[in-house]
Amino acid sequence: MASFKTVMKSGHPPTLFSAFLYFDFCFAIWVLNGAMGPFITETYGLTPAQTGFMISLPILAGAIMRFPLGVLAQYIGRKNAAITEMSLIIAAMAFGFFLVHSFNDVLAMGVLLGIAGASFGVALSLGSGWFPPEHKGLAMGIAGAGNSGTVLAVLFAPPLAQAYGWQAVYGFAGIVMLIPLVVMIVFAKEPPDREHQSFKQHVACLFEKDGWAFSLVYIITFGGFIGLSNFLPTFFYEQFAVTKVEAGRLTMLAAIMGSGIRILGGYFADRVGGILVLSVVLLAAIGSFLLLTAAPSLALTTILFMLCFAALGAGNGALFQLVPLRWPSNTAVAGSMIGEVGALGGAILPNVMGLSKQYTGSFAVGFVAYAVIAALVLGCLFVWQRKWVGTWVGPRGKVLDPAASALAPQGRLEPAPV
């Protein structure tokens, strides 16, 4: 088993750090409206359904923008795409600070926040591009841990909103965004794994069944993570009548688990296989969602959300250990496409939770719906892996051994139990 130092020597750590920082700050800005949900709801007297829609809009916009950014990155380079995106985000924050004065303006701002949500595929491909296949899971886990930006948003946005007004938070975010922009310009280097392909070759993964299979898994893991990250401040505020700042802090506890465990998800996926890790974490997520329907105490609810976020975060890391193995020459585009579809699950979740609360008086229906979908995806994963193992991935989702594959009948290995 390679040490962390050995893994870092196999790639380019400054680029990996730049990718992490870029994704971290983008993620924080992406979820700003969710972090400030109780403030915005109170300002405009929103219904639960309106709040759910307002929170989901940045997620939806970010999902739509991911794939175009991934394609752009293939042509101008991932570093240049990241610099372009961060420059647009700073301009969007200026709009939020100076021009948001109504609920319709908030919705427009939600679309602009989606620019930050487009960073995912580019950040992970940039960060892992210097590392060999056997270490890409860990590298992607480190870059993907930038979803800890959720922690920054829920920790700092509510107290700043309370002290200076929630519109001022956009201005603060625009200024802080200069940090990852400068780091990216100075320290990052474009990875050498870029190949010149036609547009048709770039988008080929859109027409492959495996691409959509990965996307369905990601609807549960990342969709659940981003959807709950955005909705939890409102959930804690309404369900337990805590203060807006306390709701942010409780959300932070769950988000920390999801962000930190993502690295471990990639690490263990490298060692024991991404398919095995995904199977375990989906089971844990299903159990957590079902237990949350019982409406337990504040302390137990917080613990269950921490467990749920840990499972979802590990699942995110494990899934993207598999992506570069399946699409080694166009990881950015494949990752963006999977992230785009997966993030749609996060856009659905706040709406389902808001509608559930408005029409049933409880959030339980939303939790049950996501648990049922997760169970269906787990069953599909068991079927899919029988076709994957031995073709482009090894047993349980580890890196495929070419020698072992050659010895297997018709170039295939026996599928590993999950």
From TrEMBL:
The keyword Nucleotidyltransferase does not apply. GO terms for cellular component: membrane. It is a multi-pass membrane protein. It is found in: Membrane. One of its GO terms (biological process) is nitrate assimilation. Keywords: Membrane, Nitrate assimilation, Transmembrane, Transmembrane helix. GO terms for molecular function: nitrate transmembrane transporter activity. The keyword Transmembrane applies. The chain crosses the membrane at residues 20-40, 52-69, 81-100, 106-126, 138-157, 169-188, 216-235, 272-292, 298-320, 332-353, 359-384. Belongs to the major facilitator superfamily. Nitrate/nitrite porter (TC 2.A.1.8) family. This is NarK/NasA family nitrate transporter. It comes from Methylobacterium soli.
